[in-house]
Amino acid sequence: MNNQNKNIPSRRIVQHAFLRAESKRNAFYMLFLEEDQGRYYVRKISGGADAINDERQWEAGDITAAQKLYDQIVSDKTRTDRKSPRKYHVEYATTR
């Protein structure tokens, strides 16, 4: 998988989720599973206090790999026993 943050062309959003944490800065995490000409990507945008602090994307070989990565990230972020002090919950999400 490729972890590059380049100009993102127009892509079809297959699935997305918006996560929010109970934190001083009101942390958020947006996750997108996207398709562009048969190639699949998982993209995240995160930040707090209504500002974007980080954007990343990972290229996945196919829809199955992209879905697995997307699901794993959502699962990791929403685990109540995660080590990070930020405990995210899903505010909204779409399914494919």
Domains counted in the coordinates: how many? 1
Strand order of the largest sheet: 4-3-2-1-5
What's the alpha carbon Rg, rounded to whole Å?
Answer: 13 Å
Low-pLDDT segments, ≥5 res: none
Shape: globular
Number of helices: 1
Task: Calculate the mean pLDDT score and round it.
Answer: 90
User: What does the oligomeric state look like here?
Assistant: single chain
Euclidean distance between termini CA atoms: 22 Å
Largest sheet: 5 strands, antiparallel
The sequence of SSEs as H and E is EEEEHE
Strand content: over 45%
Helix content: 10-25%
What class, by secondary structure content? alpha+beta
Total beta strands: 5
List the helices and strands and how they pair.
Blueprint: E1 12-21, E2 28-36, E3 39-48, E4 51-60, H1 63-78, E5 88-93
Antiparallel strand pairs: 1-2, 1-5, 2-3, 3-4
Describe the protein's architecture and organization:
It is a single chain. The chain is an alpha+beta fold. It has one domain (12-93). It is 17% helix and 47% strand. It is built from 1 helix and 5 strands, in the order E-E-E-E-H-E. It has one helix spanning 63-78; strands spanning 12-21, 28-36, 39-48, 51-60, 88-93. It has a 5-stranded antiparallel beta sheet, with helices on one face. Strand 2 (28-36) and strand 3 (39-48) form a beta hairpin. It is globular and about 40 Å long. The protein starts with 11 loop residues before the first strand and ends with a strand. The relative contact order is 0.27.
